[in-house]
UniProtKB/TrEMBL annotation:
Pfam family, one: Redoxin
Organism: Aromatoleum bremense
Main location: other
Domain of life: Bacteria
InterPro entries reported in the protein's UniProt record: Redoxin, Thioredoxin-like_sf, Thioredoxin_CS, Thioredoxin_domain, Thioredoxin_ResA/DsbE_sf
Protein name in the entry: Redoxin domain-containing protein
């Protein structure tokens, strides 16, 4: 089998897996990804703040110190990922206390560059062609977004496509990554 045939087969299988995973997603999330249900409603699952950071991801997070971070696992061959990326980049630009770090899973560098160039986008991208980061973070389907607090501890995971332009979604995300209120009087 040629390299091209293998690549096409891999992309086809990955796309089918992505669609199957979306079909198996929780009802709340599926409703949010298809534009139905209450505005801003999505399932943000609390995650264990285990430190599963391969060196390449740690290096990418270092310049984002003291900022909450959305770590978005995506791929150019994943249609829901492609659909939500422009809104994620706009959210990153609009919120000073929030940064976006994208992890291109099982994708080719040239495809990623062409995707962003065609849309005039320039997010921070970490390549994960061998899915090392995705496996370390237990990412089983795309897109998956982790919300990290300003200390870069994973706090929540969102599986599936969201309308990141929705003001209610943005408000909820900012609430989830905000530092907890200090209960001591000043």
């Amino acid at each position: 089998m040629s390299d091209i045939s293998r690549a096409l087969r891999r992309r086809t299988l990955a796309s089918l897996a992505s669609f199957a995973a979306l079909a198996a997603a929780p009802t709340t999330l599926v409703a949010a990804t298809r534009g139905t249900g209450a505005p801003g409603r999505f399932e943000a699952v609390a995650v264990d703040p285990r430190d599963a950071r391969p060196a390449v991801l740690q290096a990418a997070l270092e310049p984002l110190r003291n900022r909450a971070v959305l770590v978005n696992f995506w791929a150019t061959w994943c249609e829901p990922c492609r659909a939500e990326m422009p809104a994620l980049v706009r959210l990153d630009a609009a919120e000073a206390g929030l940064a976006l770090l994208t992890v291109a899973v099982a994708d080719r560098e040239g495809d990623v560059r062409r995707f962003f160039a065609a849309r005039g986008l320039d997010p921070l991208v970490v390549a994960d062609p061998e899915q090392i980061i995705a496996r370390a973070w237990d990412v089983r389907f795309l897109p998956t977004t982790f919300l990290l607090d300003a200390s870069h501890r994973p706090r929540h995971r969102i599986r599936g496509e969201l309308d990141w332009n929705d003001p209610a979604v943005r408000e909820r995300v900012m609430t989830l990554v905000a530092p907890p209120n200090d209960p001591t009087p000043h």
